[in-house]
C-alpha cells in the first residue's frame, strides 16, 4: 500500500543569483515522501519561476496522484507512465515522485541507486557556479570556491569580458561557461567562443536561444569548443535530434521528470556519440544526491545546487575539495532524513489511499 505526502518548501539562497534571464533570492519547492509497507522514500520538485511550475501547480498535481491501483513498487515503468500521463508538462513535480519511488526501491533492495542502475562507484568532481555580478563580487565568489577544480561561470549579459577578467585575476582554473541563451548573434557568439577558448574554457553551455535552431546548427559546425544543450534539451525526445545543434547535453532531473528518464537520456546520448553533463537547479541535497547516482554516465558534473541554499532539510553524500564522494547508503544516499522535523511551509498534505 502506497502513501504519498508532500510539503511545500521555499529554498532560501545564500546570495542573490543572477543569470542572463533575471535574478532571484529564493526558489519554490515541494518535498515528497512516498511510503510502502513501512519503508519510505524521499523526493523533491525544485521550480525556478522561469520554467512555469510553482508550489500551486505542484500541489495541484500531487493531489491528483492516486497510487492505490499499484501493488508493486518495482513496477516503475507502469507507475511513472501513469504519473507522466496525468497532465502534460510539470516535469519537476513528476521528478519528485520519480526520485521518491527510486529512493524507496533502493532501500527495499538495500542498494544505492547507482548499483540498481548497474553503474560503478565514482568520485565526482563538481563545478561551483558563479552567477552574473559585479567584478568585486565575482572575485569574492571565486575566492570562496577555492577548493573546487572547476568553476561554472554565468555569462550572457553586457559585461561578459569584465566577468572573465575578474575571474582570471583570481585563478587560472578551467571554466565551464553558461550563457543561458544570452547571445543573440551567431557571428558574435563564435567570436566570444574563440576568445573563451584562450581563457582555458572547457565548453560553452546554451550560447543562443533554444529556438534559434539554424543559428545553433551553424555555430555547432564551427565552434572550437564543445557546445552543450541545456534549455534546448528537456526530455528524451530532444536527445534524438540533439546532434544537429550540440556536441553534448545537460541532463537535469527537474527537466527530465526524474531518474528513470535521465538514465535513458544519458545512455542514448553516449550511444549517439554525444557527451553528457549532469546539472541541477537550486535544489536540496535530496535531488543532488539522486542525480549523483548517475554520475558514472557523465563527462562533466555540475551538482552544486544545494551549496547555494541556507535551509537544506536533507544531508547527502559528502563534498570535500569540490568532490562528491558516494556514501553507499541505500536509495539516493540521504543520511537519516526525518520527515517530521522538516518545517512545514504553506501547509501539508497527505494523499493516496491505503489498499
From TrEMBL:
* Record's keyword terms, sorted: Isomerase, Magnesium, Metal-binding
Active site annotation, chain numbering: 154, 252
The molecular function terms of the Gene Ontology recorded here are: magnesium ion binding; racemase and epimerase activity, acting on amino acids and derivatives
- As recorded in UniProt, its EC number(s) are 5.1.1.-
Give the SUPFAM superfamilies listed for this entry: Enolase C-terminal domain-like, Enolase N-terminal domain-like
- Residues engaged in binding Mg(2+): 178, 205, 230
Report the enzyme's class at the first EC level: isomerase
Name the chain's protein. Dipeptide epimerase
Write down the species: Sinomicrobium weinanense
Show the taxonomic lineage: Bacteria, Pseudomonadati, Bacteroidota, Flavobacteriia, Flavobacteriales
Amino acid at each position: 500500500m502506497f502513501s504519498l505526502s508532500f510539503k511545500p518548501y521555499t529554498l532560501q539562497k545564500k546570495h542573490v543569483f543572477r543569470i542572463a534571464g533575471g535574478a532571484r533570492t529564493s526558489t519554490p519547492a515541494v518535498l515528497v515522501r512516498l511510503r510502502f509497507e513501512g519503508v519510505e522514500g524521499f523526493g523533491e520538485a525544485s521550480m525556478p519561476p522561469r520554467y512555469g511550475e510553482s508550489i500551486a501547480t505542484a500541489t495541484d498535481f500531487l493531489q491528483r496522484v492516486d497510487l492505490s491501483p499499484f501493488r508493486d513498487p518495482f513496477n516503475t515503468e507502469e507507475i511513472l507512465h501513469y504519473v507522466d500521463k496525468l497532465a502534460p508538462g510539470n516535469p519537476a513535480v513528476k521528478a519528485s515522485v520519480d526520485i521518491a519511488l527510486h529512493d524507496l526501491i533502493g532501500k527495499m533492495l538495500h542498494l544505492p541507486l547507482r548499483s540498481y542502475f548497474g553503474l560503478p562507484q565514482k568520485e565526482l568532481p563538481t563545478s561551483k557556479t558563479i552567477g552574473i555580478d559585479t567584478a568585486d563580487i565575482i572575485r569574492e565568489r571565486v575566492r570562496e570556491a577555492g577548493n573546487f577544480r572547476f568553476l561554472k561561470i554565468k555569462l550572457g549579459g553586457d559585461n561578459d569580458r569584465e566577468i572573465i577578467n575578474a575571474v582570471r585575476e583570481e585563478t587560472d582554473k578551467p571554466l565551464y561557461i553558461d550563457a543561458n541563451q544570452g547571445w543573440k548573434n551567431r557571428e558574435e557568439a563564435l567570436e566570444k567562443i574563440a576568445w573563451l577558448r584562450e581563457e582555458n574554457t572547457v565548453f560553452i553551455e546554451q550560447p543562443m536561444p533554444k529556438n534559434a535552431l539554424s543559428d545553433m546548427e551553424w555555430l555547432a559546425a564551427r565552434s572550437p569548443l564543445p557546445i552543450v544543450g541545456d534549455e534546448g534539451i528537456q526530455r528524451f525526445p530532444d536527445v534524438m535530434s540533439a546532434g544537429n545543434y550540440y556536441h553534448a547535453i545537460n541532463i537535469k532531473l527537474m527537466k527530465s521528470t526524474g531518474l528513470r528518464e535521465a538514465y535513458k537520456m544519458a545512455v542514448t546520448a553516449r550511444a549517439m556519440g554525444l557527451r553528457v553533463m549532469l546539472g541541477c537547479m537550486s535544489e536540496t541535497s535530496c535531488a543532488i544526491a539522486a542525480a549523483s547516482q548517475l554520475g558514472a554516465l557523465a563527462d562533466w558534473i555540475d551538482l552544486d545546487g544545494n551549496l547555494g541554499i541556507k535551509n537544506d532539510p536533507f544531508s547527502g553524500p559528502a563534498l570535500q575539495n569540490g568532490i562528491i564522494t558516494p556514501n553507499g547508503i541505500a536509495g539516493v544516499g540521504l543520511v537519516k532524513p526525518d520527515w517530521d522535523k522538516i518545517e512545514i511551509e504553506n501547509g501539508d498534505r497527505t494523499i493516496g489511499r491505503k489498499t
